[in-house]
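Hello K.,

You asked for the raw outputs rather than the summary table, so here they are, unedited. I folded two proteins back to back in the same session to keep the settings identical. This is the first:
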Amino acid sequence: MFENMSVNLSATERRVSTLTTRRTVKKSWQAAWLIRAIECIDLTTLAGDDTPGKVERLCAKARNPLRADLVTALGLEDYGLTTGAVCVYPMMVATAVKALQGSGVPVASVATGFPAGLTPMPQRLAEITYAVGEGADEIDIVISRRHVLTGNWTALYDEVRAMREACGEAHMKAILATGELKTLSNVYKASMVSMMAGADFVKTSTGMEGVNATLPVSLTMVRAVRDYLDLTGQICGFKPAGGIRTTKDAIAWLILMKEELGNDWLKPDLFRFGASSLLGDIERQIEHNVTGRYASADHHGMA
């Protein structure tokens, strides 16, 4: 029903250019928006040098994402601020689950031949099964880009559906790798097929493509989420990932979600940032709001 759908690139770019010019967030309101951004971060480490110690430090940061003095200054001692999740490779899931026990912070795991998705299907499904068995609450799967580029929507649906079934009770985020899909029309169609196949979230990128999360791509995907809701009554979340590093970036994406989907999509059950360095910059900005001074980046180390 959407094969002939096309997305106007210039109109999309004009729309996103207004996001940070028509709406500004300052002072205490900015601090409040940044606290919400922290709650929506999937604090992520997906590196070849990941170790149990590194993952444990990241989990400690997820439990206490702001320095204690900043938490006190903002009056959040009893708020229970944490990040939205911690995202790791399947081999590190058990370590993260143990480190986050009792915190309420879910563990997400990439799977299915991340990042390229070119592993044979039985192994991709087995990787999901392994991660879920280790205790992952969420699985970030990668789609086969070739199905999108060749217009084989039935194959894409069947693939994502099989992954959805393998996830069981775990939430599934479908990574589209939008930087490799060539057109916004392909991004829209891939989003729709993934949601039809049961994705709980659609996610822009692995963070390892040449081009990762952008506002035009994100607008296209959130419009697909909105259209899918209108057509089916089914709610789907959205996760931009890759290249989102600054407070300014976080505010822009939060404005996008508020204007296009509404306040329900400003909460971690329906919106996440995939980021590893964003939290440090948010901490620096919150410290500036509290003290009037910017700290150097090493005052807010991640792991």
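The second followed immediately with the same parameters:
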Amino acid sequence: MASISNLSSPITPLKSSPSLPTPPTAAVYLGFPAKLALASSRLTVRATVPLAASLLVKCSQNGGNGSHVKRTTLHDLYEKQGQSPWYDNLCRPVTDLIPLIESGVRGVTSNPAIFQKAISTSNAYNDQFRDLVQGGKDIESAYWELVVKDIQDACRLFEPIYDETDGGDGYVSVEVSPRLADDTQGTVDAAKWLHKVVDRPNVYIKIPATAACVPSVKDVISLGISVNVTLIFSLSRYEAVIDAYLDGLEASGLHDLSRVTSVASFFVSRVDTLVDKLLEKIGTPEALDLRGKAANAQAALAFQLYQKKFSGPRWEALVKKGAKKQRLLWASTSVKNPAYPDTLYVAPLVGPDTVSTVLVIKLSIFYIF
């Protein structure tokens, strides 16, 4: 089968605030090349909880004039393949991100579930939470103050990458309240509020790709706010997300679009979770042989759609104003079926102009001299 990196031509596819304002109510495979081969299908992680699926980061040291520079597979992934590895987790102390950044991680994503787990399982939030509640904050307002502090601190750590890449990488994502998933204007208001209170150039406001929120994406982009559009499961919804991004850029009225960027988070493994059950219900040898293949096949079609939509006269007109492509972000890349290889949704989807999220809690580096 072809690799994502070989799909070069379009193909028509089948600063911290002491007190925040009140928030608004709320079938293509590509394995790693030889030099990028994973040393193991497991990544040793520093964790308080076990990790079901992970990657081992294999490092080397090289450099000139007697200096030694740590190199990892993640560095090569970005420099040789054009894919940015992002960390799909965030908790205190945020300084735990530093060794991950040194190992090649180039961004962070978060969501309400990640923060719920972080706050409820760690003592690191207790003092600030207690002070907020004793100061008269309600629970939801206190939650957002905890979240905004973490996001701001993480943005500071990744800002050098953002600056070095001229806004191409180094982003930290924070999601609007899930209660707004069916509220178009409420989502726009929440995105504006989060963007204002976080007040960092490298923050992504995360908006779900629900039918009600796709129009929100257009409106938020038109305001010059960068967006991570999440929870994309189908090709039709992904195309609607791309169109919302393009419509937003065109409606912005900005002469320089270079600082308005976006990623589209396309969920992978959960597709197989659904399709595999249907194949097992059919039960024929032919059907069973297709298990574990639908998700990557659909992801490949998504990449073809990406190539098609970000080419041609409409896109070229936006490029002249500095517009950047809305990169595909491969989300839900950990296997849900323990019988599958840990890298089933990682190695096949290495390709240029994409982001891949990895869930690691503690990273152990293995050096080769």
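The chain has twelve helices and ten strands.

Happy to rerun anything if the numbers look odd on your end.

Regards,
P.
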